[in-house]
Design goal:
Length: 448
Amino acid sequence: MRPLFREPIDTILSPFQRFFHTSASSGLLLVAATIAALVWANSPWAGDYHALWAMPLSVGLGGALLAKPLLLWINDGIMAMFFFVVGLEIKREFLVGELASPRQALLPIASAVGGMLVPAALFWVCNQGSPHADGWGVPMATDIAFALGVLSLLGRRVPATLKIFLTAVAIVDDIGAVLVIALFYTGTIHWTFLGLGLLLLGCMAGANALGVRASGIYLVLGCALWLAFLKSGVHATVAGVLAAMTIPARPRLGGGTYVGRVRDLIEDFRQANRSGQGMLANPRRHKILLDLRRAGRDAETPLQRLEARLHPWMALAVMPLFALANAGVDLSGDMGRTLAQPLSLGILAGLLLGKPVGVALTALVLTRTGLAAAPAGTTARHLLGAGCLAGIGFTMSIFIAGLAFDDPGAETLAKTAVLAASLAAGLLGWLVLRGLPEGPAEPTESTR
């Protein structure tokens, strides 16, 4: 069987390199935001920290107001945009990425499923029969920004194929998290609003089928979809993922048509340029430049355009803001006793033991039995290191903890365990991969 990830390295890296570097940078900002939140929440100004996020904020016109604390605007509103970008990444991966064919998708999907089921089972074992048993979804998640941030510190010890494998695992993990949120952490359903939301979703899908490419149409319908889901009882972030599935992934212009149009426009520009007039005195040249810009937009898919524009904002602004608002837990108590609680033990066991076992063991079984091929250039130790890094739950785990526990004490306990487990998982993954030899340098633009 031909191994996976054997395509030319340029083909692999070109769509991935920018994503990796942005996510790695996001990991550093997440660390800074988390430290800031912890210091602030455990300082003499802790009251100001909690008062800030509890501050009410109203949006609306006239008597139609939507009032929520600032924290919920972040967790239910801004995070919906984060899930929208996650949905765009999921759609792209299923169309052209590592999940585009059953053969390519088998290893990361199976590894991700193993990395979700084993942690959930370990948490349940630690908390069965307790009021906290519903928190089994907390240790299932992987924070790809933190994981890629750790990988970036390892340089050439980590082949690009392992980064792609871990990213694909995390994307499948995100799909699982969305399903868990939608199916198990949804309150009372208001069917009228849910029906309205599904109708709006159908309108977005219909716009795609009719060839609508204007982002403004999807923005208006998407905001209405978010509000309908918010009122329906289904968590509003699910609307972000569903909306992303309706974004067109086909360009208005095919490659050949685009080349012909650009060639004609360049020739027109050359002819117009012979007049010797400057740009301001030659409106024909300006019109040709606008036509060139329009042709470029028509040759680009809305999915690519939105993902490229939104991903840096989500990675470098929204996720650090979420960390600043949610990671401020009180560390003044006895940490040993805190982490020895069944709730904490379930999360620690799930992220530190369940994730490596679920991800790495599944991958090793599939590759050793020949059912799937390992990422090129990787060994069992690479896969174990990736499994350890998958135990960095952070953003998604904290998010699910906020949904799983109504008791503020249990939520704080869960967040503390998530922070401790994520820190330990990152260090453990770094130590596992740190001892590997350096591989060849990745090709640069000058050597390709």
